[in-house]
Amino acid sequence: MGKLSKRIRATEGNISEIPNQSGAYLLYRKDGDPYVGSAGAGNLQKRVQQQLNTKRGVTSFRYKPTPSEQEARKWEAKYRDQYNPKQKNI
Q: Can you give the pTM of this predicted structure?
């Protein structure tokens, strides 16, 4: 599938850019390392929306669509190692 998206400002309107498929995502705050997560079963858009509603101070996000949940988890681990190795595995 495609590469990691450009950094997108976290607004309600921009959520609609995210496809309804599996994928990995990064949530950015003004300071600090990004939060890295994944979504399966066609729920990438919904999962990012849920995270934006619960995580305070998110200013932007990036995402990578994948063909499967397994692929999304693989990219999540890769991005966690690359962008936020301190983040705890769930």
A: 0.91
